[in-house]
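User:
I would dearly like some help making sense of a protein record. Take your time, and here it is.
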Amino acid sequence: QFITSQIGDPSLKQELLHTLDRELIMLLPDFYASYENFFADLSGLPMGDTQARPNSVSQRFSLKPGMLSGEQGEAILERGARLAASVDGFRSSLSSIANRLAGIFEDNNEGPGRAAGMLAELESVRNQLAHFRNDLEFCLFPEDPNWIYWIMLTREDCELGATPLEVGTLLREELFHATRSLVMTSATLTSRGSFEFLRSRLGLEDFDPEMEVDPLLLESDFDYGRIREFCADSPFDYRTQAYLGVAKDLPDPNSADFFDQVMEPLQRLMVSLGGRTFVLLTSYRALKTVQEA
């Protein structure tokens, strides 16, 4: 609807609808089937070392190279290849549609601004699909020793992912050296008033906060001597305006009945405080659960 709404000529709009139906909509059933079949097979993979506790809402398993060998593993890899091929077909169709749209706008003077916006939207979707395909291939061949590969199972979903063991190198290459200036701010950047631990984790250990800044460096790439640190004291009077309580009778946060157990004391606390309560949660799913309770 977004694409066709940008076309003023009714005949061109009808032609584009046929193009969308022929080159994109027809691919959807196969794409969804490939997606569902792959993750259904993946969720049935025998798991060994679970990182979840009994009765937990979610379970995370390490994915290792040997787990995708054998008949079942080969079937999952084949499903993955079909899903990747389906994504490639989608991206190819989006390219054809983008070329067709560019021709329509050029031939009928529909407006360069409108064309640029639509083509940018299509290119964004193509890039997202490319990232998905690359991530899928990377995770299905868990061979890089610098990454942890995992499968997460919940009551409704199956997730496949990978996490780097050390993020400092990635941040240096992809962020710090590709950025002219960067501000990082949070309430939890220091440990006992020092940024040393954070710098070591983020790959900033070689940055010298005391080094004098060369004015010429301000016009060049990011330099190790340009980091500056500042820690502001909190204006909050914790000694007289804060209370720390630790519950000893609640289940593990990953257990299925955690929110059932925590809501009653939480509601009592909120009433006693006159509603002046800011509740921090660790996921959007937890937020929805508390909201509906």
